[in-house]
Design goal:
Layout: H1 9-13, H2 15-33, E1 57-60, E2 66-71, E3 77-84, H3 98-105, H4 115-124, E4 128-133, E5 138-145, H5 149-161, H6 167-184, H7 188-201, H8 214-218, H9 222-232, E6 238-244, H10 248-259, E7 285-289, E8 296-303, H11 312-322, H12 328-335, E9 343-347, E10 355-362, H13 367-380, H14 388-405, H15 409-422, H16 428-437, H17 441-451, E11 458-463, H18 469-475, E12 480-483, H19 497-502
Parallel strand pairs: 2-6, 7-11, 7-12
Antiparallel strand pairs: 1-2, 3-5, 3-6, 4-5, 8-10, 8-11, 9-10
Helix pairs in contact: 5-10, 11-14, 11-17, 12-13, 14-16
């Protein structure tokens, strides 16, 4: 996507703009003639109403598998998710991407079903089977009508417990992953995201790309998949969550039927705790020089908070004030100045402290201006309370997104599974709206002051450096410039070894 400088509507559309304006005025005249006065501003959001979701019930099987059931008969569907309580955080550094690839492979054939057999069986049930790895967990799930839940869980148990890891499937997935990585390494935004993670987390678990790198994916073998599966895919490291039109008694019986004989290994589960973080994160200003980039990706990044932080809701609301179409970043960068099609921020909370990033893509020539605006808007949060007229609609966005995600059985199961992974009380679902509503402008200011300080924030710009580097060096003489050909995402300093030696 290329970025162009915005022009006025009249300049772009000429007479079409005049015709549109005339139509709007004509329509306004009709409403006035009818005795209705058009409203100049949209009405404020109404007071959110707290919803009560069914409280999950649970039991633990003899083999250590935790089973959680959410009885919601208002839907004819049932979602079942098997959650492994680890993800990319336990990848060996030299095999980054292992957990992510394994999550894909488990649905590509078992000891008694081929990948085609699995796809045909799920389709015959009118369901869907999916899997994904995150940083702190891996999820394999199936959605079906409640009348089909038993054969669906049979398939789910098979792919989780008995993946075949066939060589042809491994090579097919490897090539697909390498192709995707090649495409991402041609995209300034993806490069900026990976570089920022290395700057923030260094050689610690969160520092590598979740999908791995070209070097690490190339060296993953079938034996590595088998060892990873044996170590982490075990009942005492898993949570089975069922939700929808299913009674707890039925769900527990199905869990026992299909997972009760899943043996717990004799070797005890490693006591990992939260992934380690760097002892001292030094902010950096890094430019990845990509001469063929038609635009620059600009990102400011730093450590944020963990999911269990007492400041979690303050952080969620603070991020909403910054992000979204009517958030401050987009208002300043897109709407007021036309420097980008969109500017966003993300507060990624994990088992340990995750990253906070704010980013936009712009013309190479305006990269420094956009970096200043990103840093300035993040810093401005700490200088004054957010007024209620601005805060209320941003909280409404948070609440609306939360409620919408819980409308389906799959959304409710995913939310409960996340709470279970992080050890959070299930009642947070019913307290969520009140917790968001309770955040005041002073809370957002305090959060920003404690967690988003500009002086400990790194800046990453990926683009054609000749168009912005002289201006950037005036502000940041210590800027590091890395030609894209010398970039190494496996190295904390981000340079290939021979390039480091020359430096």
């Amino acid at each position: 996507m290329k970025i162009f400088k915005f022009q006025s509507l009249s300049a772009v559309h000429g007479s079409r703009f005049v015709s549109l304006a005339a139509l709007v005025l004509f329509s306004a005249g009709i409403y006035s003639a009818g005795g209705q006065t058009p409203q100049a501003t949209p009405p404020p959001p109404s007071t959110p109403r707290s919803a009560q979701f069914p409280r999950p019930v649970e039991k633990t099987l003899a083999n250590g598998l935790r089973v959680i059931v959410i009885d919601r008969p208002s839907t004819p569907l049932v979602t079942t998710q098997l959650v492994i309580k680890n993800g990319g955080e336990v990848d060996p550094p030299e095999l980054a991407g292992l957990g992510n690839m394994l999550a894909d492979l488990v649905t590509k054939g078992t000891q008694k079903r081929t990948a085609t057999d699995i796809a045909d069986a799920v389709e015959a049930l009118g369901g869907s089977l999916y899997s994904s790895a995150r940083w702190d967990s891996t999820r394999i799930g199936v959605d079906v009508m409640s009348s089909k839940v038993s054969p669906a869980i049979d398939i789910l148990a098979d792919v989780v417990r008995h993946p075949a890891f066939k060589e042809d499937e491994i090579e097919r997935l490897r090539q697909q992953t390498l192709d995707e990585l090649t495409v991402e390494m041609g995209d300034p935004g993806s490069i900026a995201r990976y570089v920022a993670a290395r700057i923030i987390f260094g050689e610690t678990p969160y520092g590598h790309p979740l999908a791995g790198t070209t070097e690490t994916v190339t060296r993953i073998t079938r034996d590595a998949f088998l060892k990873y599966h044996d170590r982490w895919y075990r009942p005492d490291n898993a949570i089975l969550v069922l939700g929808g039109d299913i009674r707890p008694k039925t769900a527990f019986a199905l869990a026992q039927q299909y997972f009760g004989d899943w043996k717990r290994p004799a070797q005890s589960l490693p006591n990992l705790g939260a992934p380690s973080l760097p002892s001292n994160v030094v902010p950096r200003v890094v430019v990845v020089d990509k001469p063929d980039a038609g635009q620059a990706a600009v990102m400011v990044a730093r450590l944020g908070i963990e999911r269990t932080s007492s400041d979690y809701f303050g952080g969620v609301v603070a991020n909403s004030v910054l992000s979204g179409y009517s958030g401050r970043l987009n208002q300043e960068i897109r709407i007021k100045r036309g420097l980008s099609y969109g500017a966003v921020s993300q507060l990624d909370t994990r088992r340990n402290i995750g990253p906070f990033v704010a980013t936009a893509q712009t013309k190479n020539q305006s990269a420094v201006q956009v970096a200043d605006l990103l840093l300035g808007e993040v810093a401005r949060l700490a200088t004054a309370e957010v007024p209620d007229v601005e805060l209320s609609p941003r909280k409404a966005v948070v609440i609306g997104n939360f409620a919408r995600n819980l409308e389906t059985a799959a959304g409710l199961v995913s939310q409960v599974a996340s709470l279970a992974v992080y050890g959070i009380d299930f009642n947070e679902i019913n307290r969520y709206i009140a917790n968001v509503q309770g955040i005041k402008g002073s809370d957002v200011q305090r959060f920003a002051g404690a967690h988003l300080a500009a002086e400990s924030t790194s800046v990453v710009i990926v683009g054609n450096a000749k168009d912005f580097l002289p201006e950037l060096r005036q502000k940041y003489p210590q800027v590091e410039v890395i030609p894209v050909a010398e970039l190494d995402l496996n190295a904390p300093m981000l340079r290939k070894k021979q390039a480091q030696a020359s430096q």
